[in-house]
Amino acid sequence: MKRAVVVFSGGQDSTTCLIQALKQYDEVHCVTFDYGQRHRAEIDVAQQLSVSLGARAHKVLDVTLLNELAVSSLTRDNIPVPTWDPASSGLPSTFVPGRNILFLTLAAIYAYQVEAEAVITGVCETDFSGYPDCRDEFVKALNQAVSLGMARDIRFETPLMWLNKAETWALADYWQQLKLVREQTLTCYNGIQGDGCGECAACHLRANGLQEYQHNATAVMQAMKTKTGLV
Question: How far is CA 160 from CA 13, 64, 120, 124, in A?
Answer without folding.
Answer: 8, 27, 10, 6
